[in-house]
């Protein structure tokens, strides 16, 4: 397949690995090896990062979190509960620092990054219930966290965006917490892997059709049936009414593109204010892999602008 990638992304494509999640241990080792060549992270000026723990789901371990906080003394800041990406089987809060730190700096928000448990060791519903447990903890501890419980947003990238979308469904169905905004960045949403883009771009960079199918198998577990619940795959939700306003980002040459577009369209049809951005010439994870490219910077800037607006409502 020939792809018309953005001119600044094109030279990097051949150097990017494909994330093979059929072997989670090998995938995690590859990411650790890659991270060794990345310059050390430096927090933006005025942002402090601390670690903490939230009570886990009933009968489950506590959930580690990283807390990104502006240094001033304001006590009614908005808050973002953030879930990192990694195909359900890789990644960590410690390995995804730049975006939540920038959210805190640009939006003036406290950002709580969830170090949820990974599949296949912990399949559905463990990881998403970890995220929801942190959401409950944030609302309950709003005073000590210095946040405004009326301005709680959720955000995530890739598989993390699946958790963000699922948290909005869970909060609606379980009567809270109230969420004011959801940011879904290149979201994983549909375990069926049958959209036109999934079939059109089988060998796209970083994330292929095989990657997508393998990641769902790891997350749903060996005993998964065809009756997959919406909290696992939000695209399966029959009713999207009553959900918070959304910002959805998709990449042109991403097998996941159309499930993000379809979900945004369905949100709009359900009366949910929704902004959808498709970035031409991009692919899954290109913004994070090649952050200096102009299109990557535009993706980040527009997402942060939408987040700031969503937290003000």
Description of the molecule:
The protein is an alpha/beta fold. The chain contains ten helices and eight strands. The protein has helices spanning 24-35, 98-107, 126-140, 142-145, 159-173, 196-200, 209-220, 257-269, 286-289, 294-312; strands at residues 47-54, 63-70, 77-83, 110-114, 147-157, 181-185, 246-251, 274-279. Helix 5 links the parallel strand 5 (147-157) and strand 6. The longest helix has 19 residues, at 294-312. The radius of gyration is 18 Å and the shape is globular. The N and C termini lie far apart (43 Å). The model has no long low-confidence stretch (mean pLDDT 95).
Task: For this entry, give a set of tags.
single chain; 313 residues; alpha/beta; 8-stranded mixed beta sheet; 8 strands; 18% strand
Q: Roughly how many Å is the radius of gyration?
A: 18 Å
- Poorly predicted ranges (pLDDT <50, ≥5 residues)? none
Classify the helix fraction into a percent range: 25-40%
Strand and helix order = HEEEHEHHEHEHHEHEHH
Structural class: alpha/beta
The main sheet comes to: 8 strands, mixed
- Number of helical segments with 4 or more residues: 10
How many β strands by DSSP? 8
Distance between the termini: 43 Å
Shape: globular
| Spatial order of the strands forming the largest sheet | 1-2-4-3-5-6-7-8
Share of β-strand residues: 15-25%
Concise account of the structure shown:
By secondary structure, the chain is an alpha/beta fold. The chain has helices at residues 24-35, 98-107, 126-140, 142-145, 159-173, 196-200, 209-220, 257-269, 286-289, 294-312; strands at residues 47-54, 63-70, 77-83, 110-114, 147-157, 181-185, 246-251, 274-279. Helix 2 (98-107) packs across helix 10 (294-312) and helix 3 (126-140) packs across helix 5.
